[in-house]
Write a structure and sequence with these properties.
Elements (H helix, E strand, L loop, with lengths): L1 H39 L4 H8 L3 H23 E5 L13 E6 L5 E2 L6 E3 L9 E5 L7 E8 L4 E5 L2 E5 L12 E2 L1 E12 L2 E10 L2 E8 L18 E3 L4 E5 L9 H4 L2 E2 L3 E13 L15 E2 L5 E2 L2
Antiparallel strand pairs: 1-2, 2-16, 3-4, 5-6, 5-16, 6-14, 7-8, 7-13, 8-9, 10-11, 11-12, 14-15, 16-17, 16-18
Helix pairs in contact: 1-2, 1-3
């Protein structure tokens, strides 16, 4: 749906711009010439007013072109709003959060074919990214980058371990457990199960995650040839992502890696957050918010 809207914006911008341009080059000079002739000949006021009045299509194009062009540039190359639809990124992001995604962080892409034409940067470990879901690219997903190209990533007994990519066999960093610090238990529930909150140090990024009690099952994990069931080696040009709500997230553990070309941008801020805490029996539609969480507005860690 988002890509269809991008195509619509581009077509509307190009169409209105062409109408304005063609009128300016071909028809506007003729109208001005007719007005000058009519004015010099003492023509009727109604005739002058008729020549001075722009055709409806041209007038509409001139009014909407600057606005649509601004929106297209802003949305395609700078920032795009997204809504969080699920709890897979709790506690970092909640259902009802409306976020801004920085589109230029990882390079500029054309809004239709999504081909990169300017390379600016690459994802870093710990970034929260929006991307096209590899099994179904029409869907937008949001997760946290944990594995960079060439990394070895292990998720065993709910403990994340990473061995960074290394070009040589000497002085390569060993496989290390990602530092975890227990915070609280039971401040949130998922399917009646209390969630445990931890602070995770992922590279230079300190953020919080949720886990549920019990041993993690790897029976559904994505199987990469040559590795164990809970181990992955990130291919070049790809990234490995996880949700912060570790036991309630459909992420790279289950479907693999995110290609670089699927990246949409980096989630940088929450600009508004709504609550939808309404009982099912209420007559008020469920999409109407019950409150605003102003305390959540700000940057994303």
């Amino acid at each position: 749906m988002a890509n269809y809207f991008s195509i619509f914006l581009v077509l509307l911008t190009v169409g209105s711009g062409l109408i304005w341009l063609v009128d300016s080059l071909m028809f506007a000079p003729k109208r001005r010439q007719r007005m000058a002739v009519a004015s010099g000949a003492g023509g009727a006021t109604s005739t002058l007013e008729q020549d001075a009045q722009l055709p409806w299509l041209v007038d509409t194009a001139q009014q909407i072109f600057p606005v649509i062009a601004f929106v297209m540039v802003l949305r395609s190359f700078l920032y795009e709003p997204f809504q969080i639809p699920s709890g897979s990124m709790m506690p970092t992001l909640l259902v009802g959060d409306f976020i801004l995604v920085e589109k230029f962080t990882y390079g500029l892409k054309d809004p239709v074919m999504r081909n990169k034409f300017l390379d600016i940067g690459e994802p870093e470990r710990g970034d929260v990214v929006v991307f096209k879901f590899p099994p179904e690219p029409k869907l937008d997903y949001i997760k946290r980058v944990v594995g960079l190209p060439g990394d070895t990533v292990i998720y065993r007994n709910k403990q994340l371990q990473i061995k960074p990519a290394c070009d040589s066999t000497e002085n390569c960093p060993p496989l290390q457990k990602v530092e975890l610090k227990f915070e609280t238990r039971g401040e949130a529930y998922q399917q009646f199960a209390p969630l445990e909150k931890y602070t995770e140090q992922l590279g230079d990024v300190s953020h919080q995650i949720y886990r549920t009690q019990g041993r993690a099952s790897s029976s559904r994990y994505y199987s990469q040839p040559g590795t164990q069931a809970d181990e992955w080696i990130v291919p070049e040009g790809h990234y490995f992502v996880l949700g912060d709500n570790r036991d309630n997230s459909e992420d790279g553990r289950y479907w693999g890696f995110v290609p670089e070309e699927n990246l949409v941008g980096k989630a940088v801020a929450i600009w508004i957050s709504f609550e939808f805490d309404r009982v099912p029996s209420s007559w008020v539609p469920g999409w109407i918010p019950t409150g605003v969480r102003f305390e959540r507005v700000g940057g994303i860690q």
